[in-house]
Design goal:
VC0802-like; 6-stranded antiparallel β-sheet; 2 domains; 8-stranded mixed β-sheet; 13 helices; alpha/beta; 17 strands; globular; about 35% helix; Carbamate kinase
Length: about 450
């Protein structure tokens, strides 16, 4: 079997959904499990509606959501009652929020879940209309996906990998249309596994069910050498390793959810990124190992904007044991996730995009150090397996940044030597991308 995941843009209108249906039909012999996101923009509409309901505004946002879905159903020739139970449940939720005048992370997850729950029903109904009578929409939590209770960013529990095969067995001969992004915790409350989490869902089910391949269908030609909105000549990458893809996802490549790679790596299942609107294009295959390209040791240049730089300085740090432990204990208590870190004799510099809790963490660290915070930064990563065997990669990287007239604030390189990361100001992103791409790809 294979897993086929379709993103929100791929399901954004009736014409796009028809294209996805055709793609699924061409792969029926491989017994696909289809994972779907919400229709494009719907998750934002649902979250906005929940927040608006706190202020008593229920009907306006709800009707916009209803119209969005009914326009798609009408375009596919499907009856409006395909999702009517979900619509009634959503309206009841919004009215409840308006009465209590409060929305919690748990309630936000409940509201967000309607996007995938309704898109899966619409897609399954359309497949049945096309003659695939065994197509059935099933929620991921009804097939064994269970998480912790960290609402809006829940983590799947290890037991999911045992529960999923048992729950899936009665449906093995069906065309299952599965909800991405959503799950339930052990209390039975709906959770979500982070934005773009449908990729993660696909990888979890692929690993749990022993799929031969996980296909991620998007509105791009694959993973590219750079952001095409900045470098229109950026090229698709034919093959890359799990290690390279993991670094790219972590440092900002929007093609894959950062956690997607983990279940696939553990199970040794290749991931193929494909273009919904150009299905014959080869896309990018991500596999266990790929031979480095000597001519192009760098595979891609990625960046993650809106980072926060935190500088922690203390002369008492010199020769003092336990200083780093104190810093990390504070960050852990306030749930601050670190992206990069660099140290010197008397200072520690780190980056994060975790704004919530950061002020409190900094105040606590000021009890034993001087703490300065700078916002509006961007992490860049130059990634490629071939870098570890190529002399002068750091020199080429930093000369390209210098040629762009950009000042580097922080540098990090791991022992794996497949990634050089550094920090610049947000405003310098376009110049840095263009200069690096010219240096490493000649365009």
């Amino acid at each position: 079997m294979i897993v086929m995941k379709f993103g929100g843009t791929s399901l954004g209108d009736p014409a796009a959904i028809r294209k996805c249906a055709e793609i699924v039909e061409r792969h029926l012999s491989k017994k696909p499990l289809v994972v779907v996101s919400a229709h494009s923009k719907v998750t934002d509409m649902l979250l906005d509606a929940a927040r608006a309901a706190v202020k008593g505004d229920v009907d306006g946002p709800f009707e916009r959501i209803r119209k969005r879905h009914h326009d798609i159903l009408d375009g596919l020739g499907l009856p409006s009652d395909t999702i009517e139970k979900n619509m009634k449940e959503l309206h009841d939720l919004l009215r409840g929020i308006s009465m209590v005048k409060e929305v919690t992370p748990r309630t936000l997850d409940y509201a967000a879940s309607f996007g995938e729950r309704m898109s899966s029903k619409a897609f399954a109904a359309y497949m049945r209309k096309r003659g695939i009578e065994n197509a059935e929409a099933i929620n991921a939590y009804d097939l064994g996906l269970v998480t912790d209770s960290r609402f809006t960013n829940a983590r799947p529990l290890a037991e999911s990998y045992e529960r999923i095969p048992k729950a899936f067995e009665p449906h093995r001969h069906k065309l299952v249309i599965l909800t991405g992004f959503i799950a339930k915790d052990k209390n039975g409350d709906i959770t979500t596994i982070g934005r773009s989490g449908s990729d993660y869902t696909a990888a979890i089910f692929g690993a749990a069910l022993g799929a031969e391949e996980i296909q991620v269908w998007k509105d791009v030609l694959g993973i590219l050498t750079a952001d095409p909105t900045i470098v229109p000549a950026a090229r698709p990458i034919e093959r890359m390793s799990f290690a390279e893809a993991s670094e790219l996802a972590y440092y900002g490549a929007e093609v894959l959810h950062p956690s997607t790679i983990i279940p696939a790596v553990k199970a040794g299942i290749p991931i193929r990124v494909l273009h919904t609107f150009d299905p014959e294009a080869p896309g990018t295959i991500i596999c266990d190992r790929c031979e480095p390209n000597g001519a192009h040791p760098v595979k891609s240049i990625v960046y993650k904007e809106d980072q926060i730089l935190v500088n922690i300085t203390s002369t008492r740090m010199l020769m003092a044991e336990g200083f780093m432990a104190k810093i990390f204990n504070v960050l852990e208590r306030h749930r601050i996730v670190i992206d990069m870190i660099s140290t010197s004799e008397v200072s520690v510099s780190l980056t994060t995009d975790s704004e919530e809790g950061l002020d409190a963490a900094c105040e606590e660290m000021r009890e034993f150090a001087t703490v300065d915070v700078e916002k509006g930064k961007a992490i860049f990563a130059v990634v490629g397996e071939g870098m570890r065997n190529t002399i002068g990669m750091a020199a080429k990287t930093f000369s390209a940044v210098a040629e762009a007239g950009v000042n580097i604030r922080m540098i990090s390189q791991g022992a794996s030597e497949i990634n050089i990361a550094f920090l610049v100001d947000n405003k310098d992103i376009p110049a840095t991308v263009r200069s690096l791409h010219r240096k490493f790809f000649g365009i």
